[in-house]
Structures are given as C-alpha cells and as structure tokens.
Amino acid sequence: MRLLSLLISLLITIVLIIALDTRWILPAPLGRLLSPQHGVWQNAEPTDATFNETLHFPGLTGNAEVFIDERLVPHVFAENDADVFFVQGFLHAKFRLWQMEFQTHAAGGRLTEVLGEKLGTTDILNKADRYFRRLGMTYAAEGSLKLMEQDPGTRLMSDAYTHGINAYIQTLTQSTLPLEYKILGYSPEPWTNLKTALFLKYMSFDLAGYETDFEYTSARNAFTKAVFDKMYPLAPDSADPIVPLGTLFDKPGILPKAPASRDSLYMKFRSASSVLPIEPQKPDKENGSNNWAVSGSKTKSRSPILCNDPHLGLNLPSLWFEMQLHTPNFNVYGASFPCGPGVVIGFNDSCAFGFTNAGRDVRDYYEIVFKDATRQQYLLNGKYENTIFRIERYKIKGKRDFIDTVAYTVFGPVIFDEKFAGKSNDRKSYAVRWKAHDPSNELKAIYELDRCKNYIEYVRAARNFHTPGQNIVFAAKNGDIAIRAQGEFPAKWARQGDFVMPGTDSSYLWQGMIPQAENPRQYNPERGFVSSANQFPADTSYPYYLGNAYPPYRGLIINRRLSQMENITPQDMMKLQTDNYNVFAEFARPLLLKAVSGDDLPADAKKYWEMLKTWNLRYDGAEKGATVFAVLFDSLENVIWRDELAPLKNYLMPAENTLLEGLLRDSAYQFLDDVTTPQKETLHDNIIAAFRQALPVLKKAEDENRLHWAAFKDTRVTHLTRLMQFSRLHLNMGGGRNAINATKTTHGPSWRMVVHLTPETEAYGVYPGGQHGNPGSKYYDNFIDTWAKGEYYPLVVMKKNQDDSQVKWTMKFLKSETSKD
Amino acid sequence: MMKLIVSSILIALLSLAACFYLPWWTIAVVAFIVSISIYLKPWVAFIGGFVAVFTLWIALSIFISNNNENILAHKMALVVLHTDSPFGLILLTGIIGGVVAGFGALTGSLLRRTVVVPPPAVIP
What residue in A sits closest to B117 (Cα-Cα)? Predict the structure, then answer.
C-alpha cells in the first residue's frame, strides 16, 4: 500500500515534468517556458536595463568601442575593417538573432525544420520550402557565395561578420536564448557566409521575383492580340520615366534576335488553353520605393539633399537595423540588414546613397519536354540532353525527412513538374530562368558604397549590383547628384519572357546582357533633381525591351512637386516624403463625377457620392472620401474586367493606369461592355454597378465607425511569425497606393531617410520598428508611433571622442589576452 | 509547524540556487531531497513543496515583470491565456512551479515513509 502510493506519486511527478518540459502532451512546455529563471520571464528586459558591457574576444585584432544612444543605435568605432564587421555581426545577433536565422531559414527552404510540415493551415513544406528550393535559391546563393569569398574585401567583410555572430551565439544559455526560440522550441545553429548569401538572394526574390508570365500566358491563350495589347499595353500614356522623355541613348551594344518561330509558336494568341501552374508565393507587387536627390540649385543651403523610402512588407522585428560604422578607412551611418555586413541605405562623410526597385522582369519560364518519367533527359533542338539532378533534403520537425529531386536544364531548375505543381497540375514541366541564378557579388557594391568618396567611385561601386536591379540615387557634398537604373539585365526581344517560352528550342534562351554602360542614368541634370519611384526607367526610344509592369503615379507626383519646389529644406523633404496626395484620384475622380450625376444613384448611396465629391484627394487618416474612392474604384475595376477575366483560372487584372488611360482616351472603351449580357453597357452603367457592389462595404464600414481612411485601411506591423500578440495593430495613419506616403495595410515605407549634405551632415530617419528584436524589450517597437505620425529622428553621427551627453551606454570590445595566434 | 517552515524555506532557497545552473525541473528534485531529509507527513510535505516554489516563482516573476513594466507579461498572457492579464500569467507560473515541487516533496516524503519507519514524533 505504502509502496503503491509512493509509485503513484513518483509517476505523477515524472509525468508532470515531462508534460511541462516537452511538447508531447501539452502544445507548449509550460514549465520550461514559465520558469522565471529559464523561460520567457528572462526575456522581460528591465526597462532601465543597461547596455554597458566589456567583452573580450580572441577573434579581434584590435580594440573597439561602441557608443549606444538613447534610441539604442550603436555607433561602432574600430581600429580596422575586420573588427568593425565583427562587432556589427555581434550586435546584429545580440539584438536580432532569431529574426536573422528565421529569414535565412525561409530563404534556404528550411522552415519545416523549425515550424514543422504545417503551421496552422499553412503548408510550409510545399508553399514555402519546396518552392524556394525549386526556384533555386540555395543553388543561387552557393554561386554568389563563391564570388563573395573570392573578392578580398567582401571575404574579409563576411568572414568577420560571421565570426561576430558566432561569438554572440556562443554566449547564449537556455535563459538568454531569444524569446521566439523558447516559444518555438529550438536553438540557433552557427552562422555561415552562406546564410549571408542566402539573405541577399531572399532580397532578390522579394525585389526581382515578381513576374506574371503564367497569368499573361493564360490571357494570351484566351484573347486576340488586339485585345491583349489593350489590356496589357507596352507603353502607358502617363509615363514620366526616371530619365526624362527625350533623353538620347547610345546605339545598342547587343541586338537580341527573335527566334524564327516567334510568331507561329510563341505569339499564338487565342490558342487552345491549358491549365497553368499558380506560383505558391509571389513577392508583393507593391514592393517599390521612392528616392530622389535635389542639387544645391534648388535648396536653401545650396547643398544637395538626398531622400529615400523603400516600401516593403511591414514586419517586426524590422528588416532594418540602424547603426554607424567607423574605422580609419570609412565612416558610414544608415540602415543595415541584420543578416548582412555594411550599411545599405545611408551616408558617409562624402556622400549619401539610396535605392528603389528597378522592377525589371528577370525571371522567365520554359516548358520542358522530358523524354520519360525518369526526367533524366529533355528535348532540345531535336536532340535529348541530360538533366543534372540536385537532391534536396528537408528535415521536418517531428517527421521523417522528405527528399525531393530537382532536375536542372540549360535554362535552369525545373520548378514545376509532376512532382510539384504549385496549386494546379497540368502534368507539364516548367524550368525557370532567373537572373538571380547568375553568380554576382552585391555585397561588394555595399562595401564600396559605404566608403565611396565621389561620383566616379559611386559608379564603380554600383556596377557590382546585378540582381535585384535597383535605381541607385547618389548625392555628394561636392554638389553632385546622380541616379542610375542599375543592374545586369537580359537584353530581350519584344515580349520575350512575357509568356512561357518553349523549352525545346535554344533560340528562346536569353542572348546576352545589356552592357552596363547603357543602363539609363542621369548625372547633374539641368532640372536640378533626379528621382525614381519604380516607374519606367526610360521612354520607348530606349533601345531595349523593358516589359510593362511599372506603376507611374508616385513618379509623376514626385517630379511635379520637385519641379515646383525652390529653396528646399530638409523639413520640406520630410513633408514631401509623408505626403498623402493621391494623384491617381486627381485624374480618375473627374471621370467618375462626369459620368454619373448623383441623382441616378440609389438613395442610400448619395451621401457617399457627396463624400467623394467633396474629398480633398488626400489619403489623410480622417478622410472619408478616400475610403469611398478606394472602394468604388476597386469595384469599378472588378465590374469592368470580371466578365472578360472570369473564365480564366489564373489571371492578372490589368493595371489601374491602363484602365484609367483607356477611359480617358475613349468614352466608348470596349471593355465597358459586359460580354455576358445582350445590351451594350456604358461607363455610366458600370459606375452604377460598381456603386451597388461598393455600397454594402461602405455601409458596413460606417456602421462599425471605420469609414475614415485610417480605420478602413487599418495599417499594422506584424511579427514575422504572424503572432498578433507580438504585432502592432490599428495604427492611426494616412497614406496609400499612389501617394508618396505609400503606407498600405501591411506594406509601406520601411525606412524613411532625408540627408542634407552640408559640410557637417544633417540627417533624419525613422523606421516602423525598434532596434531590439525582443518583444519583451521597450526598444522592440518604440519607433512605430513616431513613424506613424510622419515624424523623424535626427541621425546623430558620432565622433571617436564623442561627448557624453549623446552617449547613453558604452560597450567595449577588447582583444582577448588568451588569443590563439 | 517549525519543520514545515524550515523545509519550505530550504526548498525555496535551494531551488533558487540550483536553477542558476540546472534545468527548471530541478525544483522537483530539490523538494524530493529536502522531504527525505526533513520528514513531514505526505500531505504536509506536498503543501510545503507547493508553497515554497509557488511563492518563489510568484516573487521572481513579479520582480522581473515590475522591472519590465509588464511589457512582456501583457504579450505572453495573450499568447498563453488568450487574455490580457499579466497577473494571470504570474499566477499560472506560481501554480506550475508549486505543483511540480509539491509532487516532488510528496514523493520524497512517501519514500522516507516506505523505506525508513518514521520515528515517533517527539517534541523536546
């Protein structure tokens, strides 16, 4: 009896411990998680925590000091370059390690290792990991890694950075592990240079991975050429390109020849339709940005001002980490990527630089014909060629490994085939040719930009940037301003790669790259400013095919404003960067108001019509007219295109500027007619129908007291795991698509920067996040309110002997006495 | 009563010390060992173990969370309890620690009772 009760008690104790220490019985190891000395309580950083610290590392060659200001921005002063990147790696890891590993796990198709096969209803294995590996992300990163490690500068930079991260990882204990590791139940692995390369490829995916080849192919199969060209025209009327209309271009160095079978085989409009794959993930179409520089001729101080705000997904921890790096060789301040060394968007003692996305289509598909199910050979120019297999092994948390074999062809990896077809399966195979597969060393561009002194060095630095293509803006203290549509872009014949190409004919391969010297560029233009906002880089006189996916409106309004402005101050630039004026609505609203009088609307729609009529055309948070316009125009697009596109499984709605320009040009625009009805509809009929669709949405919003734009748009900054408890929701702010302040619901200006290149640099910046990645720190999201209000922080460039008033904490990195060498 | 208090204080202090180096469930081992050393009736031992670590963990988490202005407790309470209650999270922490230590102590007491016949309770 006594023995029995002893055994029962022992058993209960053991079962309790197992239940609370593992995930076998409960969904989370609550004992391990809540133990105040081990679990999440340890991540509750005291709000008055000190960051003063003295550390010793054998990996350092000298000593380094880090001044940390009250916003937790580190200013690193090192005796040499290797040490500064070591310290940068250490600090990135100290504040952002979980995010860094998570981002590179995502890039390398390894999320199943930490999240399992499925997360909720999301199929991590197929939607994320297999897709990324089949796209060739790791293959591409391995290629670029070789270049990175061959170049002495980037080798030193990435090696030291990796050592710094690993030095931090070695300090970790169960208690000091970042919060997300504890919640998800795993530990960090050592960092490698490959992870840095993978992250850079992830940026290529995000910025040079958007294309619509399958959507265009299904539209080509469904429509005549005339209809297709109207829906997806090559040159919009509203184009105000990065290099102004009328710029003269050199004779092209390469003239791509269209294949002989182009018209019969490739441009086969209205042909038999086939089911095409749907990519499991697409980068956000809105991934874009604004940047501009004004020369001294337009500023009050007579010194140039450079501005940049990259529009990306709004996440916590933020993509960016602010810091200053100082060595005897360079002194740079700005936004860095946790995952990579150097400063990406920022300024040094001589100049400033910024980026917007070039948005060129550098990813194409080829339909592959395999000889048989073994996929060992594929047909090319009438002969069978051998494929090369790359075996991808997926370690799945809680399950057996999954093995996938990907066939590589002369075009690239076969991304979709019988074994993996995205959402649909027509049993066909498609290889992907992606510019990011070509080895390139973008880190070298960052390395050189950070220490660049003048225009010549800027050009030399920028030329290392191949993929993702970027419009790199530049301004220097000597008064120079410049921009270049930078990247290594394939020279394509017209419409090449807009549709899936035949993979049996090598004449459809890319024939070469546009010589970099021919990239559109501007240097000290007479108009006194350079700018880009993802619009067309050049007009149609540019001798290369540019594709057609370029949003025109932000570029239009930026150029209009900059042309008008004189005696510009940094404060004017901040006002411009956060301007909510919607120039698209300026063109579109009169069209709506002209076609409908208001009396012909349903009675309960009239008050919304009044809101639209009296709207100030601004996406300000309090504007109700903004909501009416956005909802109504969405409905109108839907009403106009639905009848044409509904039969297609996989389609892309024509761009809003295509519709607007079509309506402005032609009041009897052919797509106004609903092809499913016998009568012929007019714009008036379409607007009324759109209002009927919009009405319930508007009424519901009004009932819920969220008709004003800020509440309707409902901007949020979400934690990378989509855990809402770690996110910032319902931000009260304006902005939106086509406004310079491009803040949408989950997407927007991820870093705003204004740099005034006066002798002593005057700079401002802010990003929607905080320096600390720990949700238990007060520095986790403390910049968000400032950002949402459209305010900025002064960016303080510190000196080696900085006075104490700006330095809140000091970290000392000392060369260890027990050095191995 | 004196023995209960001594035993509880010992469990709390040893748990605090051990957990600087050892896994969290060492609290059960500590309670087990203390209960073998200082004999209490099984249910008294359970209460002693429970109260010791319940108090310790509540005190520690209140101290930590206060210094943190409850930033993390608000978020984690939403994750774990689905309500915004830092106090709820602190209470859950205490209960988990208390129950595990309580059962450790109970097992220790039962073992002592099984292996060694308890000496008659002589109060000097």
Answer: A2
Chain A nearest-CA residue for B25: A17
Question: Nearest-CA distance from B121 to chain A in Å?
Answer: 19
List the strands of the sheet with A728-731, edge to edge: A315-316, A715-719, A728-731
Helices and strands (DSSP H and E) totals, chain B = 5, 0
DSSP letters, A778-808, are TTSSTTHHHHHTT--EEE----TT--TTT--
* A32 part of contact set with chain B, CB < 8 Å: yes
Residue A284 token pair? 């956000």
Task: Select from A490, A445, A395 the least CA-distant residue to A144.
Answer: A445
ipTM comes to: 0.93
Whether the CB-CB separation of B98 and B25 falls below 8 Å is answered with no
pLDDT tens-place string over residues A209-264: 888 999 999 999 999 999 999 999 988 877 799 999 888 898 999 999 999 999 98
Q: How far is A316 from chain B (nearest CA, A)?
A: 14
Stated length of chain B: 124
Prediction pTM value: 0.95
Question: Which one of A725, A777, A778, A784 makes the best mutation probe of the B interface by having the most chain B beta carbons within 10 Å?
Answer: A725
Would you call A271 helix, strand, or coil by DSSP?
Answer: coil
Is residue A87 within 8 Å of A163, Cβ to Cβ? Answer: no
Chain A residue closest to B58 (CA)? A36
* Nearest-CB residue to B113 (from A2, A35, A42): A2
Residue B91 Cα, gap to closest chain A Cα (Å):
10
- For B79, name the nearest residue in chain A, comparing CA atoms only: A725
How far is residue A16's CA from residue A742's CA, in Å, rounded to a whole number?
Answer: 52
CA distances from A597 to A469, A594, A601, A660, A734 (A): 46, 7, 8, 19, 29
Separation of alpha carbons B36 and A227, rounded Å: 88
Beta bridge partners of A801: none
CA distance B42 to B29: 16
In tens, the pLDDT along A403-433 reads: 999 999 999 999 998 888 755 556 789 999 9
B24 and A39 within 8 Å at the Cβ level: the answer is: yes
Using DSSP bridges, classify how beta strands A762-766 and A793-795 pair: parallel, antiparallel or unpaired. Answer: antiparallel
Q: Where are the beta strands (DSSP E) in A36-138?
A: 53-57, 64-68, 74-78, 118-119, 122-123
Smallest CA–CA separation between A120 and chain B, in Å?
Answer: 15
Q: Which amino acid is at A41?
A: W
Query: Mutate which of B15, B36, B50, B76 to disrupt the A interface (most A C-beta within 10 Å)?
Result: B76
Q: Which of B16, B64, B99 faces A44 most closely, judged by CB atoms?
A: B64
Give pLDDT tens digits for A173-188: 999 999 999 999 999 9
Q: What CA–CA distance (Å, rounded) separates A478 from A481?
A: 9
Q: How big is chain A, counted in residues?
A: 821
Virtual torsion, Cα B3, B5, B6, B8, nearest 10 deg = 120
CA pair distance A687, A637, nearest whole angstrom: 10
